[in-house]
Every structure is written in C-alpha cells, then in structure tokens.
Amino acid sequence: MEKSRPPFWLIPNLLSIDAPLVALAWMWMLARALRVEYIPSASWWVLPTAIWCVYVLDRLIDNWTHPEVRDHSPRHRFHWRWRWPLLVASLVAGGVSMYQALYVLPRSVFSAGVVLMVLCGVYFFLAWFRSREVPYVKNFLAGMIFAMGVGIPVNAANASLLVTDLKDVLYALNNTGLKDALWNFGLMVLRTLVVIFYHCREVWVFGALCMMNITAIDLWERADSAETEETAQSHEATLTLGLIILAGGSLLFAAMHADEYSKPFFYSVMVAAAALQLINHFRERFSMNAQRVLADVALLVPLPIFLVA
C-alpha cells in the first residue's frame, strides 16, 4: 500500500492545483509591474478556481476521448479514477465562480471572461483532435488563454485599460436583432484582445512563456518515446531554440521598452525561460513525473525578483 501512494511532491500536479498557484503568483507580479495597487478580493480566488475547473475538464476530456493517455500519465489516471467526484467538484466550483463574476466582480471582468470562455471553447475543440505531432497551435492557444486569464483582473483594475462590456451586445439583441448583436460581440472580442495583448505586452510575453512550458512537457514526453536518438535530440534542440528566443526577447523588452516597474516582470520571464532550459539540459537525471513538476516550479523561480524589487 505504501508503494502505491504518490510522492508528496507530485500531489499538487495530480490535483491540478499547480497551475492555479502559478496564476496567482504571476497575477501578483503583473499587478506590481503595471502599478495596480488594488484588485478585487474575489479575483484572487475566482481566477485560480476557474483555472482549476478548466484543467480538470481538460484532463477528463482527454481520458474520455483518448484512453491511451492513462498508460503514461499519472495525472490522467488519477483524474479517471476520481472522475465523478472531480466532475461534480468542478461543476460546483465553476457555478460559484460564475456567480461571483456576475454579481461581485466588475462588469468589465465578466465581459472579458466571456471572451475567454469563447477561446476556451476553441481550445477544447482543438483538443478533441489529438495528434501524434507536437500540438504547437493548441499549446499557443492554451498559453495565451492562461496569460489572458491572469491579465484580465489586473487590466480591469487599471482605469486606463478598462475593457468593453456586454451592454452593447444585449441592447442589440433586445432591440435591433441577432445580426447586430453578433457584430457587437465580435467588436467586444476584438477590443478585449487589443486591450489585453496589444496595450499590455507583458501579458503576451508571459503567454509565450506559458506556451513554452506546455510545449516543453510535450517535447520531453516525445523525446522519451522517440525511436531514435536523433529524433530525441531534435525535440530538445527545438525547445532550446524557443527558450533562447523567448529569453532574448524578454531581455530586449526590458532594455528598450520597459520602465522601472515592468523591468522585473521581463527579467522574471527570462529567468523562468532559463530555468526551463536548465531542466531541459539535465532532464535525464529526473523521471518524467519530476520533469512535469519541475516545469511548473520553473515558473515560480522568478518570484523572489519581485519580493526584493
């Protein structure tokens, strides 16, 4: 019985609480970078709860559509074993979060959250079609969705970056018809994406880091199962190149476009990318489970930069 128990350091990964912890840390760092002094208290638990629900549903869908993932993924086996309690818990948590978003959080946060839900729907649609190749498009979308979730509460708290809300969509739906409502909804989506990503480069740089985090795990898994050494080295070289570009780009942003408040944020992305590359270089010393955990730990390594900045 003792041998069947997972090691304590794997439990956060099995329970899908590692990603919510990462989200909270980076939301705090982003708020410091954008000089946002106050974020509604509900955001600090609605965000991690929503992320946890998405992760649980993603792994349950993987189990139902691609049962073979249970053969090499302890977290998928864990979610399959406890699928019904986890499904009920995610639905309850999602319902409570939705209520808080509707009646407690600012309307701009809820409106941006609707856009985020649409993007999540696109992600789940792509996830339905599992491929043998590294799903770079799906990983890019997942990384940007994660970063957007982190960025919405911070941007909504910044008076100069308030996003549009649903009032124009609802007005058109009630008075001028579905066509105008869809047009206004499309404008709301576009404006939200512009505010979150164009006016806040910190968010999409963090999104690129999240994409590399997800891609790292995919490439490590494929390197372990590769039939030839050349294929494995190719996967690791691809990851190395991406991390070098990300770290270099972050350093460039810090040097040329960042003020004294946002510089630490770009340095944090650079440090996290370097930590991922360090894991990539020495990954043969760790099990695949440890590599998955360390990939998330790498995203928490830069936290002290803001604690001392």
Provide structural commentary:
The chain is mainly α. It has one domain (9-308). The protein has helices at residues 11-14, 18-33, 43-65, 74-81, 83-103, 107-127, 136-157, 167-175, 178-198, 201-225, 229-256, 263-281, 288-300, 303-308. The model has no long low-confidence stretch (mean pLDDT 86). This is Prenyltransferase. The chain crosses the membrane at residues 7-30, 42-61, 82-102, 108-128, 140-161, 181-200, 239-258, 264-282. It comes from Oceaniferula spumae.
Total DSSP helices: 14
* Integer-rounded radius of gyration: 20 Å
| Count of distinct structural domains | 1
Poorly predicted runs are none
Hey, roughly how much beta strand do the residues contain?
under 5%
Strand elements, count: 0
Coarse morphology: globular
Listing every helix as H and every strand as E from the N terminus to the C terminus, the arrangement reads: HHHHHHHHHHHHHH
- What is the first-to-last residue Cα distance? 47 Å
Keywords: Membrane, Transmembrane, Transmembrane helix
Protein name: Prenyltransferase
Transmembrane segments: 7-30, 42-61, 82-102, 108-128, 140-161, 181-200, 239-258, 264-282
Organism: Oceaniferula spumae
